[in-house]
Amino acid sequence: MNSLRDVFWYFLGAVPHGYWRAFTWLGDSGLLLPASLLIVVLLAWSRETRVTALLWCVVFGTGSLVIMVSKLAFMGWGIGSPRLNFTGFSGHTAISTSVWPVLLWLASSRWTARHPQGPSSTRGLQLATLVGWSLGAGIGISRLALYAHSVSEVVGGFLLGLAVSAIFLTLARHRPMPRFPWQVAVAGLVLPLFVLRPGTPAPTQDLLELIAMRMAGTTQPYTREELLRRR
Description:
Blueprint: H1 2-14, H2 17-24, H3 29-44, H4 50-77, H5 91-114, H6 119-145, H7 151-173, H8 182-195, H9 204-216, H10 224-228
Helix pairs in contact: 2-6, 3-4, 3-5, 3-8, 4-5, 4-7, 4-9, 5-6, 5-7, 6-7
């Protein structure tokens, strides 16, 4: 078991950090929060899928609230687990595992809408979802490689994102397939690139720290070092 763990960490260290930093941006909130709004637009484009858009807002909003509460609880009041080295869910991992499967499912749904009876349509939707989950797992691994999160935070974030996307896709399976112009989807994905340069992280962490300090009435947020001293 220890040898497998050593091989895993050796692999992470063998890849230059520059590549991990570029890859981890695919899970940055500056990219994926606009993408989550794009999902709402694409689902609300047709009248028959507007209820599905509302479902996405509820499910994704609940997952995002859980992430935010876990981070604020630690930053403001030091609520975490020293034994698990847990300071809150990995936001990159959770949001990417929530959003990417649904975005790829939407892209695949255009083929399904044109070939609703084709045997490959269901496999295409399933493959798109699996690719999205794999991408979320890869982004979680990048957070470990960059020492941004502990294993418990990445695993917790992945499971949370998996629950969000799986619940939504299960509910959406029994509803009409979305129909939207592909030009709108492409424009929605490209637009954030004009606002935030690729590779530049969004200031989400700094904003959460400020909110936590204001709520808790402290001058400094709790840190991982303070948590680990409790061991």
